[in-house]
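Quick illustration, no need to memorize.
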Amino acid sequence: MTAAPPALATAPAFADTPFTADDRPVAWRNRDFPCRVLRPHAAPASVPLLVLGGGLQDRRSWARLERRLGHRHPLVIPDLPPARTPGRAGDRPGRDHLGWDDLTDAALHAADQTGPGPFAVLGVSSGYPVAYRLAQRHPERLTHLLLFGAAPRPGPRLRTLIHEGLAREAAPGPGPHREAAGRLVDLLTNPRAGADRLMIRAAARMLRNQLTASPQDPLARYVADRGQLLLDDPLPAGGVTGVRTLVGVGAHDSVTTVEDNRAVAATIEHATLAVMRDADHLLHMERDADFADLISRFLHRRPLTTPGTLVTRP
């Protein structure tokens, strides 16, 4: 076993912080990518949880989950390499472009940051195809598979926006990108449901502000990260067996609907489906306490009695 890579940065050691966090480079093929690793000060209550976020998230996007789980669970949160190389928008996929198999291999390297033993994996939004493939190919390593916001294929609105993002990547325009950010947020959230649900509106506003403040075109960034890959078999054939699985979705998710998530769950042996009330695609922000509670209950084989959550078989 090789020695752990040196840390890039270490979180301040506040007296009341129940975990140690550091950023470290993961050496993979001919590049490095950063990975955030949290270790509880107390004895861990479970195997490490590998967190694979969506296309607009990075290793700093999970502060709420860290606060709620980091005191008991080792967390591994990588920034997987982008699937597309900037400046190569018009190229056919080649050695500088990555596919789902490449990202799955990179994720496995990230999981090994806490050792070569078993781990659980959480795949959210466009992180789900990577998590699903890990369970397919390495069921002996995985203790639990948790998927949130999954769909067999992108719907028409998302496909249209992905193709527009590819066009914008090929011919980038000047900022600011407020209009593009608004359209992407309106797709990823459910404005209609948010009309009378404060937390849905608040999460949408937060995401819109983040995207507007960034100098990058949010649509071009989305397709360069993993958006384009959603057009290419996000759900592989063959299903998953032998891994305990939970698939979760917000009841008002309009980009990966309840039926989309149900269809993904149906491909997994003995999967459980959880539908969270008063939430949409950003349920990890809108109902962060319940999101963490559901994950913890599933990891510890406790009854899935998270408030406002309907649990069924697909």
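The mean pLDDT is 90.
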